Amino acid sequence: MGRAGGRGNQADHHLGACLTPASRAGGAGDAGGAADALGGHGAGAAGGVIAVLLGAAAWGSTGTAAHFAPAAAAATSIGAARIVLGGAILLAMAAGRGHRAELRALLAVGGYQLCFFAAVKLTGVAVGTVLAIGSAPVFTGMISRLTGGPALTIRWLTATAAAIAGCGVLITGGQAAGVHLGGVGLALLAGLCYAVYAVTAARLISGGTSETTVMGVLFGGAAILLAPVLAGTSPGWLLSGRGLAVTAYLGLVTTAAAYLLYGRGLRTIPAPAAVTLGLAEPMVATLLGVVVLGERLTGPAVAGLALVGLAIAILTIGRPPAADRISAPPPG
């Protein structure tokens, strides 16, 4: 696969954005069936599933869009420009509504960026990305359960295992890669930071804070953190027509719109299911690489697509067994 499709597409996204979707930490329903997350409110949960998948689809287009950036634009520069613009838009929207939100997740957002960059430098993009995004659903499920969230079910465990395996194959292309123990540790720490940020942001949203406010504060803070990175990566490419067009798409669609959609989904989907559904991102990235960029779909890529698709089907189709459905814990 090339730079903007399959493994390359997913790697570009994570090197560029270094931010991952939030997911609901508690809430009603079980962690196995997203459509049954709120029991009798299946329509609301189904709408949340659609919002999450649309957000993941937008993230999946990041690498394809970045492919059309000027040749002089480095991946880190593109990613920093994306978050600076998208974060500024979200912060402006939050300020316009006059809301206030807690800043406690901002530290975790910054921690994810620092750990992820360091991890991929030590152990490579493929291994670092797989470990970071693959460990995040597991950490999220553990934190959710330990902090009073619903029980994790066999259905969720099965779907998550399939999605992580599929992502691993898509990102690595089925090839073995060198492993650096320090890089592995940093990648896992990045996944933990992701989970902490996700749980914190989701609880703000499920507690009644507007998703616009939560995302605006977090990504506005991320924009401030990444502004020096953008300034230090020769941002002259932004002055070209292609540079402006690519940055506008990345900031408006893959950041502002995508995270608002995801935030809407967090109101009706429990954390473990939402994070696993978000792993549809590399599947979309691979398909766009084939359809838009004319890349070849390899055998491992087909297997990876099938595994991620199976995971999404497990979470969204049908109802879980009665014994698998867990009542929500009392509020607070």
Describe it.
This protein has one domain (6-20, 30-316). 61% of the residues are buried. Helix content is 69%, strand content 0%. By secondary structure, it is mainly alpha-helical. The chain has 13 helices and no strands. Residues 1-41 and 319-332 have low confidence and may be disordered.
Helix-strand blueprint:
Blueprint: H1 6-17, H2 42-60, H3 62-67, H4 75-97, H5 104-123, H6 125-146, H7 154-172, H8 181-206, H9 211-231, H10 241-265, H11 271-278, H12 281-291, H13 299-316
Helix pairs in contact: 1-4, 1-12, 2-10, 2-12, 4-9, 4-10, 5-6, 5-8, 5-9, 6-7, 6-8, 6-11, 7-11, 7-13, 9-10
Domain unit count: 1
Count of extended strands: 0
Oligomer: single chain
First-to-last CA distance: 47 Å
Structural class: mainly alpha
Number of helices, counting only DSSP H or I runs of 4 residues or more: 13
